[in-house]
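Lecture 7 notes: from sequence to structure.
We start with the chain below.
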Amino acid sequence: MSKQVILFLCEHNAGRSQLASALMAHRTKDRFEVRSAGTDPSEHVSEAVATSLGELGIDISGRIPRRVTEADLREADVVVTMKPGLKLPAPPAGRLVGWSFPDPLGWDIEGIRPLRNQIDAAVQELASEL
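Predicted structure tokens for the same chain:
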């Protein structure tokens, strides 16, 4: 039996979606196949985001932001948008979940920690539903 695919999306795939995907994978171990992407990806993941996850023992230092594709949206069982109004290249085939978290672009570690914790709570709630 294949695992459910959960796709987290934000604009730059450098902050919110990286936090959510890393936290979901960490909290649920091998229960789901977890992916992330962005509609307009940055060149790198936010250093403050990576550092905040490192504080929890999660290493995302090798991740590179990537653009969401139609195939991503077709293959995902659950698509979680991290902000309202994202322009997707195609409609999701699976369940669409809409969250609203602020863009942490330019935030330092002190600003990221509360956001990380809020996203972690949302991730754990979603995992318990699935």
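Points to note: The mean pLDDT is 95. Strands lie at 4-10, 32-38, 78-81, 95-98.
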